[in-house]
Write a structure and sequence with these properties.
Blueprint: E1 2-6, H1 12-33, E2 38-43, H2 45-48, E3 58-62, H3 70-74, H4 76-81, E4 87-90, E5 103-107, H5 111-114, H6 116-120, H7 126-146, E6 149-152, H8 155-164, E7 173-175, H9 189-200, E8 206-210, H10 219-232, E9 237-242, H11 246-257, E10 263-267, H12 271-280, E11 283-286, H13 295-302, E12 307-310, H14 315-319, E13 323-326, H15 331-343, H16 345-358, H17 364-377
Parallel strand pairs: 1-2, 1-4, 2-3, 4-5, 5-6, 6-7, 8-9, 8-11, 9-10, 11-12, 12-13
Helix pairs in contact: 1-17, 9-12, 10-15
């Protein structure tokens, strides 16, 4: 088969966080395991050189078109259709409406349908927001109904799709878990631990959150809970790292207005900084109300960091017994959970060991093999 992959979101720096990592790891593993099919990767200028070809069956095409734009709908179909592919994989729901090539799509979550708060959070004016909202629903519906197969990263997302699109045949949906980089795959771990601790004067004395600041991430609840906790443990810091944008600025403003001290915001950290943050954290807190998969929690587990997670969406499915949970709508419950785990060293060690076992269930290679099997199952006309 001649298979295309929309790789414009390749890499966390270009594609952003989990989605960019998903595309990057999918392509990396496919190059390692698939010597049968031929692949065409569509990339932007920013990641064209970053994406390295290690398999002669793979080739790159420049498709320097940003997502969620008119040009994506107008120009991208022509570029893709001209390749005469048997199939193309879109790792996100932004499939051009007039694409003729058969496609499979990965749906990570339906947050804008599941969470009205996030759906209404925007920096656009009312008219532009309304147009964008209609466009999102139209493109998403097209992707779900016209795709040959829908890949989801959790059963929670599968259920969300069936809830919002009841006409979709459940047999059309395949749940394929993402992978996670294990502890042994990190290089220079001791250097990362010691270097970060010495530079910042830390010794596993902080709580950590890594991710964006969208409303569904529930960061105000985390900040308010930390304020309660820090009144008893004033020496403890909360570090929040993620992309700098209007949402992160609003989060910082909230912390300032509420006079929440000992909070440090780190903007746009690179991979080494992220590894250092995980390695030196005492606890990782994942307060999100809606997640398609929850990769940061698994990354924390891979580095031996106990995880506190919201009892919501996919997080209990993905983390199992390797995390302690709280009601995401309760500031007091989160504060109490943080305090309890902070003082319970035995429970911390239990979660650490359970975390090491839990991450064994998730493999990027296994994910890629499952995806290849889906490609093979699709019968093209």
């Amino acid at each position: 088969m001649k298979i295309g992959i929309d790789a414009r979101m390749y890499g966390p720096k270009v594609g952003g966080g989990g989605l960019g990592r998903y595309v990057e790891q999918l392509i990396t593993e496919l190059q390692s395991i698939d010597q049968e099919n031929h692949y065409v990767l569509f990339l932007k200028k920013e990641n064209f050189e970053t994406c390295k070809i290690t398999n002669s069956n793979f080739e790159k095409r420049l498709a320097d078109i940003h997502w969620y734009t008119v040009d994506e709908q107008r120009l991208l179909p022509k570029i893709i259709d001209s390749e005469k592919l048997d199939l193309i994989h879109f790792p996100h729901w932004n499939v051009p409406l007039f694409l003729k090539t058969p496609f499979v799509v990965t749906i990570h979550d339906l947050i804008l349908l599941d969470d009205p708060t996030s759906a209404k959070a925007t920096t656009l004016g009312p008219l532009k927001y309304t147009v964008k909202r209609i466009g999102y629903r139209t493109v998403l519906k097209n992707a779900i109904l016209r795709s040959r197969k829908i890949i989801t990263v959790s059963h929670a997302t599968e259920l969300s799709i069936l809830k919002h699109f009841p006409k979709v045949d459940s047999d059309k949906i395949e749940v394929v878990y993402e992978g996670v980089t294990s502890l042994n795959d990190f290089r220079g771990l001791t250097r990362l631990r010691e270097g970060f601790g010495e530079a910042r004067g830390t010794n596993r004395d902080y709580l950590l959150y890594i991710g964006n600041s969208y409303p569904h991430k529930n960061l105000k609840t985390l900040l308010e809970a930390f304020k309660i906790f820090s009144e008893k443990q004033p020496e403890v810091k909360l570090i929040m790292a993620g992309h700098k944008d209007l949402f992160s600025e609003a989060t910082e403003k909230f912390a300032l207005e509420k006079n929440i001290k000992n909070v440090e915001f780190i903007h746009d950290p690179d991979d080494e900084t992220i590894a250092r943050l995980y390695t030196n954290a005492a606890l990782y807190v994942f307060p999100s109300k809606i997640e398609g998969f929850g990769l940061p929690g698994l990354e924390a587990m891979s580095l031996g960091v106990p995880v506190i997670a919201a009892r919501s969406s996919s997080l209990p499915e993905i983390f199992g017994e390797a995390a302690v949970y709280f009601n995401p709508n309760s500031v007091d419950e989160l504060a109490n959970t943080i305090e309890k785990l902070w003082h319970d060293k035995k429970l911390q060690e239990e979660l650490k060991q359970k975390g090491f076992e839990q991450i064994k269930k998730f493999s990027w290679e296994k994910m890629a093999r499952n995806v290849v099997n889906i490609y093979r199952e699709i019968k093209t006309p």
